[in-house]
Every structure is written in structure tokens, then in C-alpha cells.
């Protein structure tokens, strides 16, 4: 009887909870389960980490441009253990390098591209009220947050943060200072976060799509996020395994990655030995190559949305783009060892991986070509999101094409680990992916806030960034082809052969510092527009996909009526239609 | 606001959200343990000498533990089947049994571990023991995780049976899927480490 009473007492309370709209500040903005709030949390945290990771690189660029010169003011602030007398110590340089890569990839771009845009836009684009597992979604963000805090805290560990590169190659990393242990623990948090997010994205996409929204009516962005989620789901666990093994090597004294007879600094090591140091590289790149596509696919998705919207045309070859995307996702699991041509893993392995690498370039080219052909014959609107989307195309193109020589075993030998590689993947990720993400910020800002960002500031941001990005990365190809290694603390100043190209380091560095200046209009624009931007209605870009049916900003639960999809995603300029766009959600 | 298809099935997929979620999670777990098994293969094929498992490890104890875990999978199914038939009392019994068997497994594992430590065999001793402790240790964490969830459904979580029996049954089923997976990992671990 008493049990019954307790249940009867509990039920109205639960019902009350479900329809309780007025949440307190903490539940509404901090520990929220609303996908839009979580998306914005991810995006803002990701943007902050991008800026922080960029700042680390700006410090490194001082040392590369002016090796050994004292850095005025900042050098003093960073203290004697890092920059005695303002001159950077090699250990500190290594810390900056390792943490720049780690932060940009795992704490900057992925959280912004997948956590931010995926969380905010994907449920809206498929007409869902929220993610399938809202509490898991919150857990995913806070796990990411803890990972970020761990990584930041590692700067204060004895001996500083991780110094073994973002790749943490063994056996060096096993003997690195305690910052490496923090790095591994931080990675475990970040991997957990990605895993929870990936499960949520896939389930949401399959289960919560609106009535009538078949898979071939998905906006390309939804497809991009879906494939990305599968990559995260299946590629990250091997890195988690690898992190556990390296942790065991560091903490429990095992020798998973330590071969027999290893000698460090003239001292033979007393470990049991018998390990395989290449094993780490295999496990690491098994994640890290699909990770490259995790970085690029969401940006491609964003660019596709914006190009269709601003050319006022359907995407050219939507189906072939989707098939290419799925094929690319599959292939990305079997190309990883093209990062390892120089390890002596053998020519049979190299031949296999160079073949798969050449094959995977085909779907990327199909997608890029389809996007470029989509421009043909359109009456293009050159607003800020479109400028960034158009900037993405040649930048990603340069990044992709310069990758081909690296994917071929023979051509890779002279280029491996030079600045050429740095130039190549930064063209893909920095002016490529990050331009795509900026485009997305400008494009969906009105949906998130109900206000538009300022166009003039946006154009300044674009032109400045576009020029500076090329000033930074184009010289790196020349440095690399001259043979300058990417690992040098002095940027090559100690080598005679590098003397003719050393001035390019200075050009690159000034490009980086100017790029920082051109982010100021963006930062100002972002905050100013939240409160003062021009108000918009729910569909300011006259777009066709479902997210534009919701009010701006959408309330908790997203849509005022249950949305339904009646047609494909890009019905622009349909002959005979009353307007130049026919939204998916209009009957 | 309610999320659709938490309990009821979506017609075109024939599934509810939790079922897809748990299978995706298991797929990622396969990749996690797959990477560790691959590590085992690579280390063993690269080693000059590799001890046979039964010369170091205690096969009878592990056989006992295998039986314990398989039994716990049976009680897990019975727990879920009881809910399907609306018999909450027998659910409690079987679920309690599942948690208890998990506990027995851990106790046996504790004796195995402490015996090894007593003999001076540590993860750092050689790579066989390193992979043994890593694989079984990670598996043990999974057992603990599964036990925690099952204990929750046996105890405080069981209240949901009164308010939403269909949802509760689904959750127990999903927890069961995870428990069977943990069991399955052990069935691969046992021959790989102890017998080969």
C-alpha cells in the first residue's frame, strides 16, 4: 500500500518535470540537455580552443622567424623555466608544437565541426525535436570539457605539457615528462566524448528524421555528419586501446612499445623489452587518418549547403556526391599506413597503402568537382558565408593535390617530415576546413540568435584571412622542397643548405601574426551581433532545408508544428514555381 | 518534451532508439578489443619466445570463471524474459543472481591476480603478462560497469517498472546485450590467453 502511494506521488512529479518550461539558469545554460545549447557550448568552447591553439603557434613562429632572439614582454611573462631572458627553450618549443596539434585537432576543429554544427544543425535539418539521447549529449560535452581541462592543466605539470608531438610516437613519448601521462588521460576523456556523440548522431539521424525525409532527401550536411559519426565510432577505439597501452608502458612498466635492447642517451634500458614500436604508429594512424576526414567532411557539408543556397541552384550531382562520401568514409579505414612509408615497414605494405591512397583521392575529387560545377550558370550571391565557401574550394583543392606526391611511396621519401607536409595538411585543415566552419558560423548565426552578423566586417575578415592564410602556408611548400625538416627548433638556421630559403620563415611568421589581427573583426562581429545585429525572420537566406522552418532562435523542442519533408533538399529555381526556392517543408 | 521512439518502435526501421544506440556502442567496443587482440597477435608473432598460457596461468580457475560468466548470461536472459511475462518477482531473483555471479567472477579474478603478484609476476615482467593484465583488466572494468548498471536496475532503477514497464523492459534488454558482449569477450580471452 505504501509502495503504491509512493508511486502515485512520484508520477505527477515526473509529469510536472516533463512539461516544466522555466528551467533555472544552471539547467538552461550550463547543464542543459537541449541540443541547441549543447551545440553552442561546443562551438564556443571549440572557437576558444582554436584561438588558444593558434596563440601557441604564434609563439613558435617567433622562434622560427628569429631563432634565439629574445621575445620582448611576453617572454618575461612566461617565466624562466620556459623562456629564460625571453629566449625560448627547446623543451618549451616542443611543448608548444605538441599541444598546438593536439588542441587544434581534438579540442578545436572536431568540437566545432561535429560537436557544434552537428549538434545544433543536424537535429533541425532532419526535423527532430532534439537528439535521441539528450542526457548522453550533455555527458558528451562535459567529458570533452574535462578532456580540455586536463590538457590545459598539463602545462603546469612538472616538466610541462606533452612534448612528443600530437602523434606521441613511442618510444620517445614513453620516456617523456609527466605531461605525457596527462595527455593520455585527456585523450581518454576526449575519445569517450566522441564515442557518446557518434552514437547519438547516428541514432538521431536514423530514428528521428521527419516524416517523408528519406535518406536521399537528406541535405548533404546530414550525410556528411552521418559518415563522420561512423568514422568517430569505429576509428577512435583503437586509439583508446593504444592510449591504454602507452599508459601501461609509462605507469606499470610494461614494454608494449619498447623493443629489446633499447638504448636511450647511452644508457641501456632495463625494461623487459620485446615490444613493437611501430605498433603505436599503426594504432595511432588507424584513428588519425579517418580523423582527417572527420576534420574535412563536416566542412564539406557546410560548404555544399551554402553553395546550393547562394547559387540558387540544386547541387550538381547530389547522388554521386553522396555515394562518393560513403565510399570515402569506407576507404579512409584502409589508407593509414601512408603516414609510415619511411618506417621500414616493407615494400609490400607500402604498395598496398599507396594504392588505396590513390583510390581515396577519387571520391574527394568527385565531391570537389561537383561543388565547382554547381557554380556554373548560377546567379551567385556573394554574401559572407558564400565568400568563405568559395574560398574553401581552391584552398582544399591545393591541399588535396599537394597530398598526392605524399601518398606515393617514392615521392614521399624526399618530402616526408619536411615543411611540405605541414603546408599540405594545413591547406586542407586551416584555409580549408576552418573557412568552411567560418562559413557555417555566418550562415547559421541568424538561426541561433535571430540576428545577422555584419556583412562589411565579414568581408574584411574573409579577405584578410584569405590573403594571410596563403602567406603563411605557400612558403612552406618551398621550404619543404628545399629539404627543411618540420622538427627543427631553429627552423633550419643551423644548416647551410637551408640558408637560401630561411627568409621564408619570416614571411610565414608575419602572415600568422597578421592573420591574428584579421580575426579581430570576427570576434567583435560575433559578440556585437548577438545583441545588436539586424533582426531577421526565420528564413533570412531563402533556404530550402528543414531547419529554416523553425523560429529563430528555435525554442526548446524546436518546431512549432511537426515538420514534414515533401521533396528533395535543394529545389531552387524550379521552373514554373512562384518563388526561386521551394522549401522541403512546404506541401 | 518527449523524444519519439524511446519505447515504441519506428515503423520503417522497426527499432527503438536504445536498441540502435546499444548496438552502435557494441560496435565500437568490438573495435576497442579488436585493437588489443591485434596487439596480442603482433607481439606474439614478433617475439622470440612466448610462453604457453597454461604454464603460467591457472586454467581450472579460469574454466570455473568461464562457467560463472556463461551462467550469468543465462540468468540475464531469464531476468529479461521474466519482465516480458510481467513477473517482476522472478526478475528480481534472476537479476540479483546475475549481479552475484558477476561478483563471484571478480572474487576469483582477485585471487588469480594476487597469486600472480605473490609469485613476483607483474605486467612489467614480460609481454605475455603485460597483455594478460591489460586485456583481463580492461575486461574486468567492463564487468564492473555491467554489474553497476544491472545492480541499478535490480535496486533503485526498478521503480520504473511501476511507471513505465515497457521502457524498463527495453532498458534491461539493452543492459543484457552489453552483459552478453562482456561474456563474449571473455570467451575469446579465455582460450587466447590461457590455452594457446
Describe it:
The complex is a heterodimer of chains A (587) and B (196). Chain A is mainly alpha-helical. Chain A has helices spanning 2-18, 25-30, 35-65, 74-78, 90-125, 134-153, 179-207, 220-251, 277-311, 318-331, 347-374, 384-407, 409-415, 419-449, 455-481, 503-532; strands at residues 263-264, 267-268. Chain A has a single domain (33-260, 274-549), classed as Up-down Bundle (Cytochrome C Oxidase, Chain A). Chain A is built from 16 helices and 2 strands. In chain A, helix 3 packs parallel to helix 6 and helix 11 (347-374) packs antiparallel against helix 12 (384-407). Residues 1-19 of chain A have low confidence and may be disordered. Chain B has 196 residues and is mainly alpha-helical. The model of chain B has no long low-confidence stretch (mean pLDDT 96). Chain B has a single domain (17-195), classed as Cytochrome c oxidase, subunit III, four-helix bundle (Four Helix Bundle (Hemerythrin (Met), subunit A), Up-down Bundle). Chain B has 7 helices and no strands. Chains A and B meet through helix 1, helix 7, helix 8 and helix 9 of A and helix 1 and helix 5 of B.
Topology:
The complex is a heterodimer of chains A (587) and B (196).
Chain A: H1 2-18, H2 25-30, H3 35-65, H4 74-78, H5 90-125, H6 134-153, H7 179-207, H8 220-251, E1 263-264, E2 267-268, H9 277-311, H10 318-331, H11 347-374, H12 384-407, H13 409-415, H14 419-449, H15 455-481, H16 503-532
Antiparallel strand pairs in A: 1-2
Helix pairs in contact in A: 3-5, 3-6, 3-16, 5-6, 5-7, 5-8, 5-9, 5-14, 6-7, 7-8, 8-9, 8-10, 9-12, 9-14, 10-11, 11-12, 12-14, 12-15, 14-15, 15-16
Chain B: H1 17-46, H2 53-56, H3 59-84, H4 88-118, H5 127-154, H6 160-163, H7 165-195
Helix pairs in contact in B: 1-5, 1-7, 3-4, 3-7, 4-5, 5-7
Amino acid at each position: 500500500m505504501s509502495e503504491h502511494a509512493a508511486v502515485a506521488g512520484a508520477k505527477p512529479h515526473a509529469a510536472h518535470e516533463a512539461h516544466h518550461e522555466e528551467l533555472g539558469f544552471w539547467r538552461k545554460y550550463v547543464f542543459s540537455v537541449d541540443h541547441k545549447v549543447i551545440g553552442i557550448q561546443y562551438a564556443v568552447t571549440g572557437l576558444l580552443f582554436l584561438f588558444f591553439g593558434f596563440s601557441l603557434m604564434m609563439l613558435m613562429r617567433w622562434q622560427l622567424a628569429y631563432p634565439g632572439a629574445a621575445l620582448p614582454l611576453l617572454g618575461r611573462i612566461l617565466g624562466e623555466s620556459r623562456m629564460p631572458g625571453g629566449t625560448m627553450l627547446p623543451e618549451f618549443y616542443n611543448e608548444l608544437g605538441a599541444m598546438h596539434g593536439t588542441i587544434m585537432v581534438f579540442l578545436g576543429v572536431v568540437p566545432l565541426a561535429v560537436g557544434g554544427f552537428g549538434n545544433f544543425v543536424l537535429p533541425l535539418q532532419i526535423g527532430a525535436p532534439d537528439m535521441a539521447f539528450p542526457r548522453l549529449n550533455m555527458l558528451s560535452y562535459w567529458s570533452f570539457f574535462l578532456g580540455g581541462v586536463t590538457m590545459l592543466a598539463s602545462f603546469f605539470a612538472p616538466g610541462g605539457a606533452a612534448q612528443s608531438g600530437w602523434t606521441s610516437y613511442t618510444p620517445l613519448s614513453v620516456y617523456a615528462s609527466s605531461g605525457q601521462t596527462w595527455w593520455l588521460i585527456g585523450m581518454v576523456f576526449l575519445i569517450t566524448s566522441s564515442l557518446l556523440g557518434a552514437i547519438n548522431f547516428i541514432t538521431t539521424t536514423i530514428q528521428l528524421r521527419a516524416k517523408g525525409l528519406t535518406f536521399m532527401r537528406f541535405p548533404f550536411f546530414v550525410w556528411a555528419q552521418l559518415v563522420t559519426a561512423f568514422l568517430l565510432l569505429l576509428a577512435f577505439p583503437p586509439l583508446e586501446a593504444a592510449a591504454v597501452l602507452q599508459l601501461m608502458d609509462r605507469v606499470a612498466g610494461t614494454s608494449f612499445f619498447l623493443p629489446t635492447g633499447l638504448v636511450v642517451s647511452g644508457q641501456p634500458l632495463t625494461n623487459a623489452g620485446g615490444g613493437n614500436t611501430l605498433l603505436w604508429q599503426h594504432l595511432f594512424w588507424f584513428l588519425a587518418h579517418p580523423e582527417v576526414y572527420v576534420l574535412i567532411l563536416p566542412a564539406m557539408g557546410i560548404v555544399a549547403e551554402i553553395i546550393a543556397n547562394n547559387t540558387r541552384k540544386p547541387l550538381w550531382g547530389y547522388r554521386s556526391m553522396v555515394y562518393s562520401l560513403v565510399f570515402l568514409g569506407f576507404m579512409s579505414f584502409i589508407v593509414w599506413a601512408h603516414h609510415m612509408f619511411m618506417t621500414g615497414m616493407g615494400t609490400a605494405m607500402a604498395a598496398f597503402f599507396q594504392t588505396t591512397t590513390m583510390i581515396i583521392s577519387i571520391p574527394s575529387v568527385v565531391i570537389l568537382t561537383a561543388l565547382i560545377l554547381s557554380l556554373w550558370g548560377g546567379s551567385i550571391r556573394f554574401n559572407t558565408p558564400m565568400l568563405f565557401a568559395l574560398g574553401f574550394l581552391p584552398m582544399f583543392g591545393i591541399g588535396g593535390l599537394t597530398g598526392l606526391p605524399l601518398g606515393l611511396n617514392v615521392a614521399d621519401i624526399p618530402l616526408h617530415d619536411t615543411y611540405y607536409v605541414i603546408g599540405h595538411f594545413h591547406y586542407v585543415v586551416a584555409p580549408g576546413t576552418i573557412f568552411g566552419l567560418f562559413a557555417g558560423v555566418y550562415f547559421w548565426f541568424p538561426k541561433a540568435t535571430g540576428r545577422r552578423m555584419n556583412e562589411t566586417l565579414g568581408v574584411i575578415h574573409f579577405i584578410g584571412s584569405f590573403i594571410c592564410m596563403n602567406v603563411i602556408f605557400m612558403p612552406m611548400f618551398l621550404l619543404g622542397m628545399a629539404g627543411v625538416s618540420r622538427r627543427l627548433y631553429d627552423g633550419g638556421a643551423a644548416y647551410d643548405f637551408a640558408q637560401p630559403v630561411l627568409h621564408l620563415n619570416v614571411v610565414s611568421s608575419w602572415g600568422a601574426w597578421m592573420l591574428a589581427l584579421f580575426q579581430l573583426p570576427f570576434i567583435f562581429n560575433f559578440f556585437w551581433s548577438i545583441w545588436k545585429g539586424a533582426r531577421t525572420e526565420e528564413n533570412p537566406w531563402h533556404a530550402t532545408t528543414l531547419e529554416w522552418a523553425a523560429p529563430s532562435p528555435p525554442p526548446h523542442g524546436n518546431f512549432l508544428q511537426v515538420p514534414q519533408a515533401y521533396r528533395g533538399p535543394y529545389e531552387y529555381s524550379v521552373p514554373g514555381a512562384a518563388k526561386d526556392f521551394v522549401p522541403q517543408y512546404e506541401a | 518534451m518527449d523524444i519519439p521512439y524511446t519505447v515504441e518502435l519506428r515503423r520503417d526501421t522497426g527499432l527503438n532508439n536504445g536498441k540502435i544506440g546499444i548496438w552502435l556502442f557494441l560496435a565500437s567496443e568490438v573495435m576497442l578489443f579488436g585493437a588489443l587482440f591485434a596487439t596480442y597477435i603482433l607481439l606474439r608473432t614478433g617475439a622470440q619466445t612466448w610462453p604457453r598460457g597454461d604454464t603460467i596461468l591457472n586454467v581450472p580457475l579460469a574454466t570455473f570463471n568461464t562457467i560463472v560468466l556463461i551462467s550469468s548470461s543465462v540468468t540475464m536472459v531469464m531476468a529479461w524474459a521474466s519482465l516480458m511475462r510481467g513477473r517482476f518477482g522472478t526478475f528480481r531473483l534472476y537479476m540479483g543472481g546475475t549481479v552475484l555471479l558477476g561478483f563471484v567472477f571478480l572474487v576469483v579474478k582477485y585471487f588469480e591476480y594476487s597469486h600472480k603478484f605473490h609469485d613476483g609476476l607483474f605486467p612489467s615482467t614480460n609481454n605475455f603478462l603485460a597483455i594478460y593484465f591489460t586485456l583481463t583488466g580492461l575486461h574486468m572494468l567492463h564487468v564492473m560497469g555491467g554489474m553497476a548498471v544491472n545492480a541499478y536496475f535490480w535496486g533503485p532503477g526498478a521503480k520504473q517498472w511501476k511507471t513505465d514497464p515497457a521502457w524498463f523492459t527495453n532498458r534491461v534488454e539493452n543492459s543484457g546485450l552489453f552483459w552478453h558482449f562482456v561474456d563474449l569477450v571473455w570467451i575469446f580471452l579465455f582460450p587466447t590467453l590461457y590455452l594457446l
